[in-house]
Amino acid sequence: MLVAKELERLGLVAGSSGNVSARVQERGRPLLVITPTSRSYSSLRVRDVVVIDYEGEPMRGTLPPSSETMLHVAVYQARRDVGAVIHTHSIYASACAVAGLEVPPLLDEMVVYLGGGIKVAEYGFPGTTELGAKACAALGDRKAVLLRNHGMVGVGATLEEAMGVCRLVERAAHIFVMASLLGSPTPLPADVVEKERALYGMRLRAEGGPS
Ligand SMILES: [Zn+2]
After folding, report:
1. Count helices and strands in the chain by DSSP H and E runs
2. Over 60: is that where the pLDDT of 211 sits?
3. What is the pLDDT of residue 137?
4. How many whole angstroms from 104 Cα to the centroid of ligand 1?
5. Which residues contact 63 (CB under 8 A, 6 or more apart)?
6. Which residues sit with Cβ closer than 5 angstroms to ligand 1, an ion?
């Protein structure tokens, strides 16, 4: 809940756009806690969040779950290391997604914390399982992906990590746009990316992620 409000304070979401979820288990059954649909973050209360299963069936809560529920489910099914998913329409990430431009690995922290550059998923209609499948295909083993003509998705082992990922993606996309205006953004040298990818891989394996 605090994460959802923090997203709004940071300007990563506005009104009721974007959504936040976390993986939970109840008697061994995989479930997720997710923000409700069409609800502004400023008026969101703890009792408004919804608990659903992987088919999107509500288990707890009275409000309908986020319209992007199947996007969140797809990520949890594809990545066992992921404990939290945040989807935003932040401006610079969305600008790159609309332009269909992958954000190359420009900053060391992008490779160490996101796994490298940020790829753009093929377009998928909002709210569909197809959008989830396309997002996961482009996400691979990384922590973030841009959704073509839509926005971005950031993931993490925890909500705090997913939140940090969303902030880093927006910062990287902003720098990419500004550097493109100044000239040609230069990615990190390939050997640096390789070394930093090895660090990322070690962290990911420790979290139980894809090797
Ligand atoms: Zn969206």
Report:
1. 7, 8
2. no
3. 98
4. 23
5. 36, 37, 39, 48, 50
6. 151
